[in-house]
Amino acid sequence: MKKLKRLSSLLVVLLLFFTSMPSMTNAATSASNLKIHYINVGQGDSELIQIGDKNVLIDAGNNGNKAYNYLKSLGVTKLDYVIATHPHADHIGSMATIIKNFDIGTFCAPKVTTTTQTYTNMVNALKAKNLKITVPGVGNKLTIGDATLTFLAPNSSTYEDLNNYSIVYKLKYGNNSFIFMGDAEGVSESEILAKQLDTQADVLKVGHHGSNSSTTQAFLNEANPKYAVIEVGADNDYGLSTQTTLDKLNKNDIEIFRTDLNGTIMATSNGQTLTFNTNQ
Q1: Own/partner pairs for 162-165, CB < 8 Å, 24+ apart?
Q2: Could you tell me the CATH superfamily of domain 32-279?
Q3: What pLDDT is recorded for position 99?
Q4: Are 228 and 249 in contact (CB under 8 A)?
Q5: pLDDT exceeding 70 applies to what percent of the chain?
Q6: Bridge-based pairing state of the strands 203-205 and 176-180
Q7: 84, 112 in Cβ contact below 8 A?
Q8: pTM (2 decimals)?
Q9: Better pLDDT: 100 or 14
Q10: How do the domains of the chain map onto residue ranges?
């Protein structure tokens, strides 16, 4: 009987140990959660994607050092991928600083050039570090830890407006997905829809800072996001974001986050659920 009692006690201890294992597993899983930082760079765009030990930077804001300072504050030293969506200064203004000060794996940009000093500074910084520009094609994918990034645009080789050269991509992590539009306008959105590319997303990084030229109703219907993030500067000279776009998002019951009102916005996903934190 004593041996039987000892055996029963041991089984209870083992049962308690193994029933505690799920919480240990959850703790390990949370350590590799996907984090997306929509960095408040004023009137401009910059996003940092983090999963595990991987870092992906999309755009670097204007000529200030806000993106650089934010990355440094997080202790980032290496950027596995850097994507310059298109060569407007409010997206690549600080890119030369980023290139000079971080270890960079792959640098992506669309196949378009400009004669601006901002663009020249970026190219010279790349040359100084022997970095080449990779031009991603529509449908190309990047594997970032357990997440997949798929390129959706640009779908043409010539546009009248530089905004439509914007690299558009979808990030998928578990059951959560995110669309990043750069400054892509209705022209690019129509091309994406015409090719029947997968645009469904939980979170839409609104194109062109909430301008009337982007976020068409047709595109919004297909993406069908629950949340929208608008990166825009407070009291900017362009009247962005426009009330028309805000009304459209509100009419579709989409919760809106804005860097001019909320500061830097961070979305966190465990592959099933999303949470948002803001830093005003």
Answers
A1: 162/86, 162/87, 162/88, 162/112, 162/114, 163/86, 163/88, 163/188, 163/208, 163/213, 164/188, 165/86, 165/87, 165/110, 165/111, 165/112
A2: Ribonuclease Z/Hydroxyacylglutathione hydrolase-like (3.60.15.10)
A3: 98
A4: yes
A5: 89
A6: parallel
A7: no
A8: 0.87
A9: 100
A10: 32-279
